[in-house]
Amino acid sequence: MMMGDWRNYDPQRDQGLPPLVQGWVGLETSMTAAVGRAAAGPVTVTVRRQEEGFLFDDEAGFFPGGDPATLREVSLGHAGEPLLLARTVFTSDILRTHPSIVDLGDRPLGSLLFAGERPSPCTARQFSHILPGAPLNPLIRWRYDGAESGLWARRTLFILFEAPLLVTEIFLPSLLTKPGADTALVERSA
């Protein structure tokens, strides 16, 4: 088992992920939409913060140059139950001042990443088993208090408005144990 190290995700290899976790890590469509399908209802976004801050050491490699970072930390949930935690980081002045990011509020980031006919390109995907003591634990403790055994997470590097944006998503047990969690990963046609 990993001790909080991030590993590159390869859908063609067995990487020791539990089957349901592998489905969530490999999801290539909107995470918000899949969470809504698993919850069988609308997803609410609760913002912890959106402000300047510091990159974690393991995030810095995605953003050479040491520019200041903007952080957005949220939870996605349904009916008051948190299901997923997310941390978005970017350093680009383009994203820092873009009205659709600045004014995102309690709308999900997926409304930007998966808008239109062509979703934002994904250039890297990694996964990890986050254990106590990891840099993400303050975010986890904000909405979840039972992480003694660790939680699975993925992170994806997107290009939005021609600038890199790193999204880390932490899967809470309340999401993974939903009765429809496995079928939520299948995109439903309109």
The value of Rg in angstroms is 16 Å
Specify the overall morphology: globular
Summarize the amount of helix as a percent range. Answer: 10-25%
Q: Helix count?
A: 8
Would you count the extended β strands for me? 7
- Across the major sheet, the strand order is 1-5-6-7-4-3-2
Unreliable stretches, pLDDT < 50, 5 or more residues? none
The main sheet comes to: 7 strands, antiparallel
Which sequence of SSEs, written as H and E, runs from N to C?
EHHEHEEHHHEHEEH
Terminal Cα span: 39 Å
- Proportion of beta-strand residues: 25-35%
Mean pLDDT level: 88
Give me the secondary-structure category. Answer: alpha+beta
Could you describe the 3D structure shown?
The chain is of the alpha+beta class. It has a domain at 38-70 and 90-184. Helices cover 23% and strands 32% of the residues. The protein has 8 helices and 7 strands; from the N terminus they run βααβαββαααβαββα. Strands 1-5-6-7-4-3-2 form a 7-stranded antiparallel sheet, sandwiched between helices. A hairpin with a 2-residue loop joins strand 6 and strand 7. It is globular. The chain starts with 6 loop residues before the first strand and ends in a 14-residue tail after the last helix. The model has no long low-confidence stretch (mean pLDDT 88).
List strands and helices in order, with pairings.
Layout: E1 7-8, H1 19-25, H2 31-39, E2 44-53, H3 57-60, E3 69-78, E4 81-90, H4 93-97, H5 99-102, H6 110-113, E5 122-130, H7 137-143, E6 151-160, E7 163-171, H8 173-176
Antiparallel strand pairs: 1-5, 2-3, 3-4, 4-7, 5-6, 6-7
